[in-house]
Amino acid sequence: MAGRGPAPKDNAVRRNAVDLSHLEGDEDVPDRTKKLFKRDGYSVATQRWWDTWADSEQSEAFKATDWMRLQMLAPLVEAYFRRPGHNALAEIRQNESLLGATVTDRMRLRMNKTDTKKGDTTPDKLPENVADMDLYRQLGGA
């Protein structure tokens, strides 16, 4: 069966922290960048496509280059809505995939909405098969 890499083990436990720093909105993107350029020249379908992206959760992490990618896609989306074709759809799908359009794309990009405070990587509870080293030391361990 096709997929990305080998299947995970049944008892797999991720011990390394996932770095999500690339998702932090550390850059102030001008509001004009988040608006569809020459919006009135596009069909309602393309405007709805833009609004869907602009209101999505993943757009909160977009940098200026991501917004420019959407700006570049808008004419292609408009052309697709006027005359649907598999080549245009494939290009749109590929570009949207890089921006995290589907659940699978967001999983691959490790995009998730985290409620943890910045810098807090300590889990609330340890997995069952992991020893608590502090408790081990308190009980006289190394």
From TrEMBL:
Highest taxon of the lineage: Bacteria
Stretches with biased composition (Basic and acidic residues): 11-28
A Pfam family hit: Terminase_7
Segments for region (Disordered): 1-28
Q: What is this protein called?
A: Terminase small subunit
UniProt organism field: Nonomuraea rosea
